[in-house]
């Protein structure tokens, strides 16, 4: 449902994703698909979801996503 609204009204709505820091990198694939294929433009990082001792890093975790693909909020 959200995807169809974003496609129908791309100048009115911005899709926002919540980063999933899963160890098996499934979260990375999900974010790449949402941003690069489905038109989402924002990523929310919740540091409490990251494994203990790891820092939140978009450059290491999500290298396929370019800064121009995502909006600053």
Describe this structure in words.
Belongs to the metallo-dependent hydrolases superfamily. Keywords: Decarboxylase, Hydrolase, Lyase. InterPro entries: ACMSD. It comes from Gossypium australe. This protein has 73 residues and is α+β, with helices and mostly antiparallel strands. Helices cover 32% and strands 8% of the residues. It contains three helices and two strands, in the order H-E-H-E-H. Strands 1-2 form a two-stranded parallel sheet.
Give descriptors for this structure.
two-stranded parallel sheet; 73 residues; hydrolase activity; 2 strands; alpha+beta; 8% strand
Mean pLDDT: 76
Estimate the strand proportion: 5-15%
How many helix segments?
A: 3
Q: How many distinct domains?
A: 1
Provide the fold topology.
Layout: H1 2-8, E1 16-18, H2 26-37, E2 42-44, H3 58-61
Parallel strand pairs: 1-2
